[in-house]
Amino acid sequence: MTSEPERSHQDLLARSRQVMPGGVSSPVRAFGAVPGDPPLVAKGAGATVTDVEGRRYIDMVGSWGPLILGHAHPRVVAAVEAAVRDGMTFGATCPGEIALAERILERYPLADRVRFTSSGTEACMSAVRLARGATGRSRIVKFDGCYHGHADPLLVKGGSGLATFGTPSSAGVPEAFTALTEVLPLDDVAAAEQLFAEKGDEIALVAIEPLPANAGLLVQRLEFLQHLRELTTQHGALLLFDEVISGFRVGPGGMTQRTGITPDLVTVGKIVGGGMPVGAYLGPAALMDQLTPDGPVYQAGTLSGNPVAMAAGIATLDVLSEDGTYERLDELGARLQAGLERGLAQAGVPGTVARVGSILWLCLQDGETPRAFHKIRPESAERYGRLHRAMLDRGVWMAPSAYEVAFVSTAHDEASIDAVIAAFADAVPTVMDPKAIDPRAGMPNSSETSGDRVGDGSPA
Ligand SMILES: *Cc1c(COP(=O)(O)O)cnc(C)c1O
User: Fold this and answer.
1) 130: which DSSP letter?
2) Which residues are catalytic?
3) Beta-carbon count within 10 A of 118 CB
4) Protein residues whose CB sits closer than 6 Å to any atom of ligand 1
């Protein structure tokens, strides 16, 4: 047992900031974009997380996407426990890798082979290398607002408005490293056509999240994605669908299946590891066999394909393949969307709710839901910040950024979704009032107000 002082939130927070930059292992977790301090999480169970002081929240983050079955699903836990007892990593091929690869390929018939990595970042980075190696070309194209992990060539965004080319978005990425990365706006056929007219024969790869979900949920028109398929085919470039979020989330075969478009390469991650660190890239044999040991494109990983992570992934995909799972997720997603829309209308707060299946995004601005990053306005993010704290105070954990989406899991049910809707109805009037939330207000305040609320934050 840890002693009481060690468990205190403020003490742990201070210690976390002493020993880790910003107190975190990944930046958005620090609550830099929303008011107040982040709670520290001690435990997850089903659709809830519990912080170190025993307050329980309905979890709409799901560890940023992987937890489509909720926290500590019994079948995933059992599979992991069994795997752990037989050894955690061998550095040699294990049956679990074969079994998970077979399950992935069943769901992505365009692909013949899978290479496992330990993260989505590695999968995307490696897919870029493979595309360059296979085509003998150097230029790659990505879209403003799409995230493909933090490898140098992909860590580039456009400025707001029209596409900005080759500007690093992080210190430490030399311009020379991103000079070969072109950034285009989403939902803009003309810009893509112009780029291909100018440089089409130099382009190795066009990478896109077919359902961009890292800058809000920027649902693309099917025709736009089809157009990218045509342009890349015409010019001999490869098309990568980054399905690290959408894969196994919006249906068994992700957006690839939903759109009916056949990309050349697909990256997956998050759900495929069932909560363990896994990424993978997949494609036809002719491309994948360019990888070492069969071909000249090198990529490796000490812990890649380890049996524990594979077991979590297999169990997750197997539970997902049960009848009615995606219909159920869609039903709960629709219920949440309708409830949030009702809350916005009743409070007279401008906003829309974008949704595909179990992924939702609240955009707190007037007009249509944006399809491109530069259409998201700053006031939307400000309002979201206030909403975020008000929801946390009411026992609902949402992503601490206006640009991140909410995820429904199979562990949610009507009761937990309705509790989120009730909290939202109560919280949403505050978002239009700049003085409603004191940015310095931390968790101690919230415990005073959360006692009798929905998802009541009571010790679990
Ligand atoms: C999360 C994400 C990544 C990066 O995956 P990590 O496992 O965090 O490295 C890449 N692409 C997309 C679309 C993602 O959502």
Assistant:
1) H
2) 147, 242, 270
3) 20
4) 119-121, 124, 147-149, 209, 214, 242, 244-245, 269, 279
Do 50 and 58 meet the contact criterion of CB atoms below 8 Å apart? no
Grouping H, G, I as helix, E, B as strand and the rest as coil, residue 397 is strand
Q: What is the mean pLDDT of the chain?
A: 91
Which of 142, 270, 303, 359 has most ligand 1 atoms within 8 Å of CB, for mutation?
Answer: 270
Q: Whole-model pTM? A: 0.92
CA–CA separation, 315 vs 77, rounded Å?
9
Ligand 1 midpoint to CA 343 (Å): 31
Share of the chain above pLDDT 90, in %: 84
pLDDT digits (tens, 9 = 90+) for 40-80: 999 999 999 999 999 999 999 999 999 999 999 999 999 99
CATH number of 89-305: 3.40.640.10
In CATH, which of 3.40.50.970, 3.90.1150.10, 3.40.228.10, 3.30.1360.40 is domain 9-72+323-453? Answer: 3.90.1150.10
Residue-wise pLDDT tens digits, 184-233: 999 999 999 999 999 999 999 999 999 999 999 999 999 999 999 999 99
Q: Residue 176 is encoded by which pair of tokens?
A: 């020379």
What's the distance, Cα to Cα, between the start and end of the chain in Å?
17
How far, in Å, from the CA of 133 to the mean position of ligand 1? 22
Task: Return phi, psi of residue 141, to 5°.
Answer: -125, 135
How many Å lie between the centroid of ligand 1 and the Cα of residue 17? 25
Q: What is the pLDDT of residues 280-303, one digit of tens each?
A: 999 999 999 999 999 999 999 999
Classify strands 48-51 and 56-59 as parallel, antiparallel or unpaired. antiparallel
